[in-house]
Structure formats: structure tokens, C-alpha cells
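REQUEST FORM: STRUCTURE PREDICTION
Request ID: SP-0412
Submitted by: Lab K.M.
Chain count: 1
Length (residues): 203
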Amino acid sequence: MARLLWVVQKPVYFLGRQWNGVDIASVFTLTAIHLLALLAPFYFTWSAFWLAVVLYYVTGVGITLSFHRNLAHKSFKIPKWLEYFFAYCAVHSLQGSPLEWVSSHRSHHQFTDTPSDPHTPLKGFWFSHIGWIFDFRKRFGSYDGRLYNVGDLKKQSYYKFLHYTYPYHCIACGVVLYRIGGMPYLVWALVIWIASSWRRLAQ
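STATUS: Completed
RESULT:
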């Protein structure tokens, strides 16, 4: 009976709920990345393309090996310096800090397909696919985030540092890429690379 009630709950309205700065920044970032991606045909070079492919796989290893398997599930242990290196690679996918990503994923497994699942399918395809990304309070309970299930990571100053600074690492990477290869590198080796890596966001 309880599961039946979950299915018939009221839909989540995208514009009719309370928004905060994190939600607005998420919408702005996602929109900007996809609009910039439209420039890709006009700035294509083979070097930029292959650099995007390399960076796609580097961040892919970071997300799947570090955020997902190593940090969220604790499937294996590696030397700390290597753990931190792979986590730093994952940060450049612009999918959130290690604390946020791991907290959401652990909650997803703890409350799979229930109203407490951060990207529950019970609130519809839109919400489970992308709407949950724009609802910070749904994922963490408040603006500052009640990251209750990542106490092991919050004890490590490195992950706390990345939690508060992760967007700036991507911005710095974009500046470096632009300085090296101009707009082709910015559009392909940053924008296309990040947009492609976002397919891993809701694992």
C-alpha cells in the first residue's frame, strides 16, 4: 500500500518550488555549456577533438573509479596520493564536489526508488533524469547541505577543500586550455568534454 501511495503522489513542479543560489547556478551552468557546445562545428580541429577524447576518458576514470567505486562504495583501497589524484580528475567533470556526488549516490542506494531517493523515478522521467540536479534541498535538505552520510570524507581536509573550491578548478582548466589552443580547445577540450561526461551523472 505504501509503495502505491508513492506512485500517486503529487508531481514536483519545476518552477513552483523554492529555489536557492545553488539551483540557479546549476541551471545557468548547464545552459551555458550546451549553448557553447553549439559552436563546436565552427571551431573544430583534430588536436582539440583528440584532446577532448583524452580528457573525457580521464574524467570518466575519475568518476567511475574514484567517486563511484572507491569513495561511494569503498570497493577497494589504493594509496592515498592515488586516491586523491583520481578524485581530482573526477572534479573536472563538473558534476559536483566529492562530498556532494558521494552523498547523493549513497542516498540513492540506501533509498532506491523511494521518495527519499535523490533522483527517484516516482516523481517522473524529467525529475529522475535531470530535474533532481536543480533541487539542492531535495538532495541535501538545506542550502549548506546536510551531508550526513559522508562523515568518512568530511574528516579529510582534501575533500573538504575540493567541496568548497571544485568549480574554480574547472574554470582554471578552461583558462589554461584557452591560452594553449584558443577557442577550439575551449569549445572542444572543455565544453564538449564536460557535456559528454555528464551522461555519467545519474548512474
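NOTES: The radius of gyration is 18 Å.
Reviewed by: T.R.
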